[in-house]
Amino acid sequence: MKKIFLAGLVSCLFAGSAMAETLETDDAIGMASLMMCSTFYSENEMVIEGTIVNRSMSAHREAGIDDMIMTPETSANLDLYVAQFQAADKEQSMKLCDAALKYARESNFVK
Q: 0.85 exceeded by the pTM?
């Protein structure tokens, strides 16, 4: 499932034309955290948290995050974040997902 997630994330974030806006590192990591935490919350039957991140993911997609492109630096930072999340135990994942919930509440990407 993680491989499917990563493939979907990469295809979404790298898709775009030369005219597309550049995706900021914080937004790339924020969106990735929302996607990973959606799965984490689902697997751990945390319905309220899952609902929050799913709504935020939808709002970010509707605001055009999927149409943006990443710089090599943002891509490298995203790779590090994904590796950190994948290596995390349940307690560490909870802390990372707390940050995802904070991103969902405070994101300036969605107007």
A: no
